[in-house]
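Quick start: what a row looks like.
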Amino acid sequence: MKKRIYEILEKAQKSIKKGIQAITTFSKKNPWKTVSLSSLIVGVFALAFGIHYGKRTATKKEVKNIVQRIVHDEGEKTRTVLHSFIDGFAGNISSGEPLKGKMEEADALFHEKKYEESYAQYDKINKKALSAGKEKLFVLSLIGKGISVAKQKDYQRAIGILKNAEDCEDFLDDKAKAKLYYNLGMCNEILKNSDLAIEYSNKTLNLAPRRFIHSVYLLRGFAYADKREYERAIRDFDKVIELNPKDFDAYLHRGITYTAKREYKRAIQDLDKAIELKPKDALGYYFRGELYDDKGEYERAIQDYDRAIELNPRDFVVYFSKAVTCDKIKKHREAIKEYKNFIKFAPAEFEGHIDVVKQRIKLQKAIVKENKN
């Protein structure tokens, strides 16, 4: 039996290389999705193999460190969507401008989430403004094009368009500059360019209308958390809560940050509050489950994962997290079930990781069979 298990492990190790290629391709196309899944699968599987059947025995501390790195250092905020700071560009245009109506149409398409159509409309305005020598209108429509592209998840291209607008920022008023800087910060944060995200957030804070300030602090808090500057991140999340006491994202991510600092009491308070604010949002339960897993309270973690799955049955990451937790307490049959759910719902781009999970299922079945004997 053990010889067969070693054969399975050998095949799984080959699949890991394929998995790394798959996640690299996927993350380039979808950087705002679960970027951490590569380290999650490769790291946990490699370590799990070492724990159960490898040449050395991994310590509980090593397991904890891997989970800590996965959850808090790479992918946690990729699961929360930042909203573009835009209340429309028509308001930045004088009432006598003939293209003001066209800009209102473009803004409306953007707010209706018709991003390809809004891009096309902003582009038409952009070309007309260029030919007519209307500099401010040209730059405003350029920003509109950039954020429409960002909403289609092509963040690098969006940055290129927005940087072109930044080169012409002298034609903008402060409110329009704030929109430009915020969206440049947002795109850079999504792409993990944390220093640039902080730089643009700082520039936005000096210009943005008060009703948008809490969004800017939230963005900068994410960037500080990425840099592991947790105290600065917490101060920004504190500021968000001060400005908007019912901000779900601020409580959620302050809780995640406290978890990273191993301040579990404060983390639980914040995640409980996030769940209270949005009891039907799966994220609160997912990250509280991650916290309980980090603390070693595995049954409570599984309860929260189950609630997250109930609220969002297609979230393949939660199935994987639950499976790994089940592994830790030797619930091998339940782990197999959740690994299968991961395979069922994981995007096609994760083909390599799906191969790894299939090998893991074979290993788990071998363990169950061995235990029977």
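That is the whole record. Residues 86-172 form one domain. The longest helix spans residues 2-29.
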